[in-house]
Each structure stands twice: as C-alpha cells, then as structure tokens.
From TrEMBL:
Protein name: Molybdenum ABC transporter ATP-binding protein
One GO term describing the cellular component: membrane
Gene Ontology molecular function: any one: ABC-type transporter activity
Source organism: Ruegeria profundi
Stored PROSITE patterns: ABC_TRANSPORTER_1 (PS00211), ABC_TRANSPORTER_2 (PS50893), MOP (PS51866)
Residues in Mop domain copies: 291-357
Family matches, as Pfam families: ABC_tran (PF00005), TOBE (PF03459)
Domain named ABC transporter: residues: 1-233
Keywords associated with the record: ATP-binding, Cell inner membrane, Cell membrane, Membrane, Molybdenum, Nucleotide-binding, Translocase, Transport
Length: 365
C-alpha cells in the first residue's frame, strides 16, 4: 500500500505546508516539538480539517478539498494508537481487542485474532481489565485493538513517549513485527532517533511545518544538515548480520565484509539487524590506531565535512559497512588535516552501542 499526503493549513503559531508520498511499511514523522507532526496525524485522522489538501491510501481518498470530498473520522478505517493506550476500563482485554471489529466493514480484510494475540504475547491477559495491566501491556493491547479493526492505515502518535526505558525496550520489538508481518501501513510520530533507526521504512523530517527531507532512515539520519531533533540525533544507520556470539560476552556482527563487536544481543547467528551508531560516539584518526581498547576500527574515505555554528563539525566517512558519521571539533578537523577524499579510520567503542539502538532489519527497501 502507498500513502499520499498533501496538506496546507495555517495555525496561530504554525504554517503547515508539506507534501509527500510514502511506501508500505512504517513512515516516521520526525522532528522537534512544534514542528507539525501531530497536526499531520490529526489531519489524516479527520480531527483537523485542513484549509487545502488531499490524503489517499492506494488511491482511496480520505479527503480532497478540491473535490469537496470529506470522509468523517468513523468512516476512514484508521487504527489509532495513542501515548497512553486509552483502553476502555470497564472492558476486559478480550473485549477491548474485539471492539474495533464491530465497526469494520464485512468485506474488509481481517487479521486472524489468534495470530495477532500470539504476535503481541497477550494471550494470558485476555480476561484481565486495563487497571491490572502494566504500561507496556496496555500498549500491546492497544496495538492489537488497532490492528483487529481492519484498518487501511495505523496512526501511532508517540506511542512510547509515556513509557520508561524498560517498557520501551519491551514494546519496540512488537512494532518491528507489526512492520514486517502485517500489510497495513503505519504513520508513526516520534522525536526519538533510536525509534527512527529501528522502525522506519521511510522518514519524513519536519521543521516548522515543512517536510525538509524524505527518504530511507539510513539517508535522512545521516544528513547532518537536517538534524530535526538536534545534533545528538545525527548518526549512521547500518544493515548488519549476526556472525557469532563469543564466550567473553561479545556479539560479532558483519557489515559489508567489515566486523563490528558489541555487548551480547539476543539475536541468533545469521539474523539480519539494523543498528544506529550516534555520531558523538565515533572518533577519527588519520592513521590506523594502535594500542587502543576500542575493538571497532573501520577504514574509510572522508566524503563530506560540515561545520556547525559552534566549535563542532560532522564528518561523513564512507566505509565498507556503510557511511559512518563522526561528531568532532573543527580544531580536530584541522589538526588531522581532514578533507574529502582522504583515507581515515573511524573508531567506535564497543560499549557505546546501546541496546535501544539495535533492532530488527527492514524486510523491504
């Protein structure tokens, strides 16, 4: 399925003016607070009526202002996952899951409830009420309820923002499975670079109501000129494969023939993954380093150097594993004599690769 969004709308503190087409999978709206992410989702959901625009899913129009076409929210066949789950407190988990199916068209494509329950690991919760669930369990039920409503599109508005780190780590794999095993497209709002790297099929970077960049996560997150959530969001997104687990607690990964090590991860040998390497966790050397504790050293060629307004610079290095970004000082750039086309070495501390930056690999481009 494809998603087409064209919107123009004036708010008191924001002028929304954007247009993009997204492929099937997870399309992430990424940007700072106030950039327009939730406004876009509300327009798609029918909670906001834009002054000008069109939204269509595989050509099926939710609205088109030129044609004076407007489907009310209850006829748009959307699944909405909120920050807090918003389950019906007087219903059991089973009743919450099946609630949306009561309103789905009889001819709509329906997901197998048993498959959804198994995928989300909520079979043992079916007879409980929301008051007896943890935050992570509530979000899993909310995902299931949205999916079982036979939606044409799922909207997820910062669904992990209200959870602590442990619960986020619990829920992210379920969104990965949703992306890989279910055909329903997802429009996902976040300001977390880690969520973008792990989940996104494509990314729409928003700034002041405009789509300033749109493309695969590996390209958008590697563009230091975007940095929609600040310079700390800049980083490389690499496709890797688990090579083996070592007895000393490290996992060895293979990426484009290069080897990377990180603390042991719960993935099997041969499994494909995506990892994010934050630019501030990379240091550069113009010679192959010796006598360092760091295990990850990648030889590459400097592609670009972009100086910031302060003392820092982002250096993009092309390596066999993929493009690596390093956030260093302009003084270091000068001291190393770095310039495009020069060979250099990217050094990444093994323990700098955080668990939240390691996730399932996309099954589609």
């Amino acid at each position: 399925m494809s998603l087409s969004i064209h919107l123009r709308h004036d708010l008191p503190d924001l002028r929304l003016d954007l247009s993009f087409d997204a492929p099937s999978g997870v399309t992430v709206l990424f940007g700072r607070s106030g950039s327009g992410k939730t406004t876009v989702v509300n327009a798609v959901a029918g909670l906001l009526r834009p002054q000008t625009g069109r939204v269509a899913i595989d050509g099926w129009e939710l609205f088109d202002t030129q044609k004076n076409r407007w489907l009310p929210p209850h006829r748009r066949r959307l699944g909405y996952i909120f920050q807090e789950g918003r389950l019906f407190p007087h219903m059991t988990v089973r009743q919450n899951l099946y609630y949306g199916r009561w309103f789905a068209p009889k001819r709509a494509r329906r997901e197998n409830p048993d498959k959804v329950i198994e995928m989300l690991g909520i079979g043992h919760l079916l007879d409980r009420r929301p008051a007896g669930l943890s935050g992570g369990e509530k979000q899993r039920v909310a995902i299931g309820r949205a999916l079982l409503a036979s939606p044409r599109l799922i909207l997820a508005d910062e669904p992990l923002a209200a959870l602590d780190d442990a619960r986020k780590a619990e829920i992210l794999p379920y969104f990965e499975r949703l992306r890989d095993e279910v055909s329903v497209p997802i429009l996902y709002v976040t300001h977390s670079a880690a969520e973008v790297a792990r989940l996104a099929t494509s990314v729409v970077a928003l700034q002041d109501g405009k789509a300033v960049r749109h493309g695969p996560a590996s390209e958008v997150m590697a563009d230091p000129s975007i940095a929609p959530a600040g310079v700390r969001a800049v980083g490389a997104v690499l496709n890797v494969r688990v090579r083996e687990h070592h007895a000393d607690g490290l996992t060895e990964l293979e990426a484009g023939g290069a080897r990377l090590f990180l603390p042991r991860i719960p993935h099997q040998a041969g499994e494909g993954l995506r990892i994010r390497i934050p630019a501030q966790e990379v240091i550069l050397s113009n010679k192959r380093p010796e006598g360092l504790s760091a295990l990850n050293v990648l030889e590459g060629v400097v592609e670009t150097i972009r100086a910031g307004e302060g003392p820092g610079a982002i250096v993009s290095v092309k390596t066999p594993a993929g493009p690596i970004l390093a956030r260093i000082t302009r003084r270091s750039v000068a001291a190393l004599g770095l310039e495009p086309g020069q060979t250099c070495f990217a050094v990444i501390k093994t323990v700098a690769l955080a668990p939240q930056d390691v996730g399932g690999r996309l099954t589609a481009p």
